[in-house]
Records
---
Amino acid sequence: MKEIAAEEIQDFNTSLDRLWARRDLVVLATGALICLRSIHRRAALIGALPRLRYAVISAEDYVLGTAEEVIRDAVRDAARQPGVRVVVLYLSCLDILVRPDFADIERSLTEETGCMIRCFFRGPLAKADALSHEPAEELLAYLPPEEGEVVASSALPPPMSDAAGVVDVLRGKGTAQVLVTPSGCRTALARMDLMPDRHDVYALIPHAEDYVFGMEETAAAEVAELAAEGRHRAIRLITSPVPAFMAMETAPILDAAEMHGCRGGCSPTDGFHDGVFGVAEFLQHLVEEAATRWKEGGQTVLVLGYSPLLFGDAAALGEASAALADLGCSMVTAGSDALTERPAAVWLVSAAGTRAAAWLNTRYGIPVVRTLPLGREGRAAWRAELMGALGRANDAPSSVDVLCAQRTAHPERILIVADPLAAAAIVRLLTLHGWQEVHCAAYAWSSETAELYRSAADGELLIFQTAAELQPAWDAADIVIADPILLPAMGEKRILPLPSGLLSGRDGAGAGSGVLGAQFAEVLQGFLDNSKIMKC
């Protein structure tokens, strides 16, 4: 067992770097979302984003045998990019496990596309494979001389994976999280989606034979050793693509933890889904489990959908908690605090909490507050909705009273790309200040996340999975409020930066981050000031 800590990429002489040194070569990454995330990060750091493409493959594709056709289509698409002469398939662990016809992919697609297509075997399963595989130097040596350069837009950044999302949201004291994964997946987590303050995340160290005979025995032994140290009250497994594909049995592993006095649990993530969906699944399980032993409720407000990567700086929650305390209420956050009593109300802060909030409302009639207190007007609206949910009279002025009577009408068309709850808060404020052309969009990696966004949306929402689906709205906008990481894929635009951990990892989280954070407040206030808004 190895404890995982946040780290930065230090080595820029890897196989990937050597492949990308060739300017007419595109690396086509395959595998699960968790595999693609760190590859995109490295490409961004070395300026190789135009020479990176990835295949969006589902877990079902690998199970049903359709992954090879998805890969072939992605190769054809990569080969069509201007300036491409070589496409290197950067194969994942699952590709090595399921064994598509690599030789035929190289031969037939080289002939079909006119580009040289080569497969590169990487990762721990490539090293454990019975067959030998050529290193990057040998692969490059057999290619024709470099000619020209790839000229293409970048691919959309792959969002945070479900496994990383659960790790980020689960912060209960005394709980150890164990990532069951090959080494590449844990490296992706450490280098992008693990906050620096985390000290309770561990990784299983599998043996080569575990990929053939199963991981259960190794996992049980290592979990038992961790539990025997006596430092944790609970151990939760976080699964990833390989063990999910191998249908790893978690019961004997959890039994090993419980034999040493640790409560065992498992988050059945598969690495193919994004963090929004992974956290949504986890939170629903969490509240359903907690509800079986709840005390009758007092004046607790339950926060659903919060984590630093999904929402931003916790300081905003601290301010809300102080406001609740003035009302005689306490605030608990799902994933961090013990859920001991039935809440009087739920405060939904991101789409990841939508499913759990709906279940609590349907099952127990618990009202759901959906407003985020953005700006003076937003704080008034949040308090009004909260007071209504708690069955109390609202003694605060309405948002209309807060605004000046005179407002300037603004013709600019604004596009907001963000979580639907965050977008709704921004729309409310901009509309009150005179903007009428404000439109919202959200990036969904899968159909499951798209459904969560639809449930969370308050009004019209463009849900996109590809750059082409977002492009018309992006081009039509005069101003975009979004994570700047989208710019290489979507094109230059006047942007009000709203970084998100979902896309930018821990670079988009931390102090002052998020829609309620100090950084965006400064950006937004500067925008309003420059637009000559008449303020009270």
Note: The radius of gyration is 24 Å.
---
Amino acid sequence: MNKYSLDYETRSRADIKEVGGYRYAADPSTEILMFAISRNDEPPLLWDYHRGGGAALALLKEMHSDPAAICYAHNAPFEIAISKYLMHKTFGLTPLALEQWRCTAAMCRRAAIPSSLDGASTFLNLKYKKDKIGSALIKIFSVPQAKGKHKGEFLTPDMPDLVTVAGKKITLAEAWRLFGEYCLQDVRAEREIAHALRAVELKGDVLKAFQFDLRMNERGVPINVEGVKKALALMEEYNIPKAEEFRRLTGLNPSQRDAVHKWLQERGYKYVDLTATTVEVALADPSVTGDVRKVLELRQELSFAAVKKLPTMLEVCCPEDNRVRGSLMWSGAIRTHRWSGRLVQPQNMRKPSFKGSEQAYRDILAGHGLDYLEMMYAPPLEVLASCIRNFIHDPEYQMLDADYSGIEARILAWICCQWDLLEAFKQGRDVYKEMAAKIFNVEVSTVTKDQRFVGKTAILGCGYGTGASKYKEMCAGFGVNISEELATQTVKTYRETNDQIAAAWWAMGCSAVQAVKAPGTKVQVQGLAAPVVFCYHLNTLPFPALVMKLPSGHSLVYPQPKLNPIYKIKQYSKTEKDKFTWVEIPERYAFDAQGNKKDGVWFTEELSFYGQLPMSTQWGQIRTSPPRLCENLVQAVAGDFMTHGAMEAERQGYEIFMLVHDQALAPYRPDKGNTKEGFSKALCTLPPWAPGFPLESTCDIVDFYLKED
């Protein structure tokens, strides 16, 4: 079996960052400029539209004629999309089957390292790295010129112009030659990544899951384009007078951020920018009045983020069938390998802020205007925002919408041997009421709606070591303010009631630390219902890595782990007798002059690893904790259940097009034997490593995508 590596360079009037790979490839202006290809470990060959390249083209044809050939690419979904729309048009070849593709970026995500070609090759310290001049060359040849005498045109290597690359003026012909070298270098780099990460090669069940993802993304998410157009017309109708008032007050367009900021500062605006968060803070300031307040309010309305997905939906739809392809990234969450969202981002769509949003959506489709929507429901932009997910809608078919029931809480109880909680789930008892009854020391039958909320958030939110302050913040995020005393009591009751879960956190942490201290030794976490094994590998991957092997056999990777000494002392409350918290102190304060640890100092070792820093694109050392390791385990196992169930549903003829957390959607095709009971049962098919697990789902037949409960 021959293994090939492939990389395309293209040009288009479409912006790939805005529309995604499939819509980019489908655009009439998109063309293949060149490709580099290699077979096995042979030197890569180049074809380009200007100079040709017979040997490279022959190798491309050879690959396409071999049904057993395997093709690697970095971010393979892009090469798949280009091949889908342009392979036959450009070369007269039938695209490879999806099963023939492999992705080195996906391998990077499985290894929990930077997944960009540049980031991965740099992190792995490979011989071949992505050429830094690539971005300049792409601006020259792959996009229309933004200014100058060729504004709006594509530059070609036969033009006499000079361009600047890496600070030097060169001819377009020389720039084109460098572009070809850049393309060849990408193939060398991606091939070296594939060799370096062979320990996380896509094979077995992992490969099947990756291929399922390719098929799901190929099906695409349906968008009711006509409905979106009606919504956008309403949005424009609403915004036009607002924008006119904004211009009347300021003499500026709302989009002129810097100029608007300066205008506001000249009138006393003291805040550093006009980000959404800053504007919210400013509007909460009673000293912000008059025209400044009005302009801020207008700008806030005109830039209402929740409705920005509407134009995005139109931009990213493939024109042939109004479907968004490539909206899910396999193993996008590198800590748990669950899917993450792209393009329309179904994972973070706003939930309705009022009851009746489904009818409001139907009213939008029926052509009702702004006055009607505001009279019946809410301010118009609020209505559109609350209906945003409903536009995922195929007017030709209803949908099957299935959602696992409390899956993380069930997995946590199962894996941690909290059998009483698991039994309650099995019997269908209201575990949220039962938790609330313990917290408030009342009978289950008397638990109120508000008390049940506290019990529910405890079951769903305290399973990963949440403290009282964080729990209080979590409740506030749902619009419910609770006292410090209730938060403390809730956390205390949860941990006492679910003592096996609390014990499992520390068992996870101790096993991870033990593994790091004994490289190569497999350390099984004790007291769990299914095998979870840590091992610190020094040579398996091209970097030291702590690996957590899950019950399914799938592994989570923690690159470059370190053990950091942590010293804490008790800090007593000034107002409450005997109440204290443990406070971290610098190491130098933990020891006396003779080097002995002071009395009352508690010592532990904390695990950290190399990863993407929270809320940042930067990478560095990240501190973790035993409960967080447990959270990674549970969420990864939840992803394993979904992958297994979704693949079984597909095998039974359900054409899943979208997975959102623990929710699966597929077209409802009774003509093909689809039923909601069958879909739910297929999704709940248990894998061999979890016999007897109480996996349940609810399923409805719906007209369009609804909110997740």
Note: The CA atoms of residues 231 and 364 lie 7 Å apart.
---
Amino acid sequence: MNSALRLPRATPLWTLTLLALLFWGAFNQLQQRAWFSAACRSQARPDGQFEDLAPDAPPLPAVYLDNDSLYWLHNAAGLLAGGSWRPRHTDWDNAPWGRANHWSSPLIWGMAGSARLAALFTDRPAAELLPVVSPWINPVLFALFLIATAIFLGRRFDPWIAGLLVLSLATLPPILRSFGVLHIDHHGLIDIPALWMPLFLLLGITGDRRSGRGWFWAAGVMGGLGLWLQASHQLIPIAGTLFALLLWALFSRPPLPAAKGVAADDPLAPGPWRIWAGAGALVSLAAYALEYAPAHLGLQLEVNHPLYALSWWGGAEAVLAIAGARRERNWTPRRLAVLAAGALPAVVTLLLIRRGPEQWFMVSSPFLLRICEQIKEFQPLLGTLRGVNPLLLFLLFNTLPLIALLGIGLAFSRTLPVRERLGLHLALAALLPAFGLCLRHARYSSLLAAALWTTAAAVFLALSRLPPRRKGRWLPPALLAGGCATGLLLTLAPLANPRLPFMPVDRWVPQMLQRDVARELATLPGFPAGGVLCSYNLAPALQAFAGAATTGGLYWENTPGLRAAAEFFAATDDAEARRLLRERDIRWVVLEAKPGSEKTWVYARHGAGPRPDPRATLAFRLAAPGRAPAWLEAVPPETIPLAAKAAYRVYRVR
């Protein structure tokens, strides 16, 4: 065992890791207690407030941070009920036909497997235990992830620094959200490769040749798994790494000739980097076959695809060809051929995304882009924090941005060994696209947190190779320790609210209201039968809590259902709108009648071009009593007081 893992030298590392685990366990336990005691024991009232249930009343269904959790539970329940082990279709959206599902399967397997395992030790069926055990998968996974990360860091870092890095990872708010007990989702799974692939590369670059190849292999496997879990997430650190290697190959000084019989110390030696790219590409290809072969192969570039594996592998070979040509000052025909062939998959992929048919990359659809503008996670990070203290933006990533600024200065230090300097360049290059994407879309905040944390690790690894200095050597560890303390305080701050400790009130209250509205609508005679055309935000609650098939969940696979809702509510021709309902066998229409909502529907349907008068649309007419077409029968508000108070208009199709 490495001496860094032995006591007493490793005592600081394991003490701080234990502190991180204790904090993590307490944080999730308190969230779980608030989740059950508040959300499951409270119900909405027509006056917009909430009241506790009677002591002997059964608990209400749980609510989560967002609607994705309901879909994951639905897919896992389908697997337990004998459905496909690769759920490629869901009947919840795009009524009455359903839609394709391209979420990766490992989380669904884990949820169903955990429920079946729990059923072995109880007398309850696995389907009943599914919502009980599923919320704890991500917290347990993160605890194991922290322990493993501590082991990896202990092999190369000072024990105090390694421990503080583990603690900082446990107190980063974007990471906390991904792995929290209220978040049944794959975001935790996709954050692990985004954190470990750059870390393993860093350990491989700065290690000896014998152990380095193992780290490169592990980094490639992590990258391939990341492409499987969510390609749009993992492609960012992969592309950032390739870009950093390209810049290094073009502008760094070639390695000095070594003594006779001794190999030159070239950090861009082809062997390790071929292991990284080759292992990653092979894992990605194997995962693609596991998920989609043989019946669901196709050109869906929103998710893992062989073109991404080939682009990664070919891109690495192209960069290595450039590095070899510059090192030897010789462009041979073979190197030119490797460069052209290596770059070809990436060029083809970009052309297919930019110029191919819409169905090959639905995310680029103008209609879907307009819909995404209404979703909070697709809004700029600064926009989502509008109206709050600007200090929160800094606290969101603790003090890691300041450590990254130190890394920029260190990256140009002439006294830093070449391998540590390359590690810093790789970390900083992966940080730039994550930062740009996060400014544009808040959903990438966990990716930015992962990149900042990896940069901090690269900074401390570089500092350990510099000559010791008395002045200022305390500053980086102090910044890291201060960031840990900041993260702990920021996370514990919600305890000041006695009713909702650790609960994200802005998300929790609307989710509860939608649940109770859906349960109220389910009592209407005949409501679960037939499809429901409704506002996008209410669709998952109607599906999960009222048993209804709707036109809409906010997912790119559901573009036809989303477009049908926009066409209906933005329609000015009653005959065309009625034809759409008949075509889809829609029996109910539910509209969230907020002021100005008709403009949102018109914009989603028509964009910025020529548009009809919003006051002539069905959305505007259905929001006011007595203006609906004769083939829509309004449900009286006194029949559905909670839905009426929440500004929902409900119509039965005649």
Note: The longest strand covers residues 586-592.
